[in-house]
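Work Package 3 (structural annotation) set out to generate three-dimensional models for the target panel prioritized at the project kickoff. During this period the team completed the workflow that converts sequence records into discrete structure tokens, so that structures can be stored uniformly alongside our sequence database. As a representative example, we reproduce one entry of 196 residues exactly as it appears in the project archive.
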Amino acid sequence: MEKEKQLEPKLLRREVFRVKCPKRIVVGDPYYFETVPPERLKKLVADYTLPKSYEARLVLSQYEMHDFGVYQTNAVQIYLAQGKDVDVYVAEKMYADQHIDRRKIGVDTARYIIGIDERLEEFHTGADGYWGDACEYSHTKNERKQVDGMMIMMTMPEEVSVAAMKQSMYGLFEGVQPMRIPGRQKSAKKQKQQER
């Protein structure tokens, strides 16, 4: 019997925004922030205090998934890095001497928070498990790891529409400005029609 081929998620939409880089970003189960010792907490959540030289990009995506039937899911990606590097990562590329350290962001209380400086929003997932990833782009210099940037990706709960996801991110981030990425985005008119 031939094994069923696992289909890759199909990207339906991808919107990229320039946002003011926060001073601090936290993402994870709020229960962990309240109860887990600091050394273990680093493995469970994303908690970054960012250098002033960093810039930030926000990517809102919608995918068609094929793992348990066919359904759609929405995701938020937050890219943080210096100057032109942030746009390299948004383009899903990296430099030849870099590698990515990835850790999963899980929840045990069927909820997670995204905190941008003093603004915070809680999302109720309806289930425990892994709801995102925290990735660090880095290279080695003089046998020491140098972090070049990071990306945080969170899957939105099923009931959060694209419009609701966008509204949440506009509330969390300051200075949200849509960016045109050649060949990657649909026209604004088509985007508006699909949101209705």
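The CA atoms of residues 125 and 175 lie 27 Å apart.
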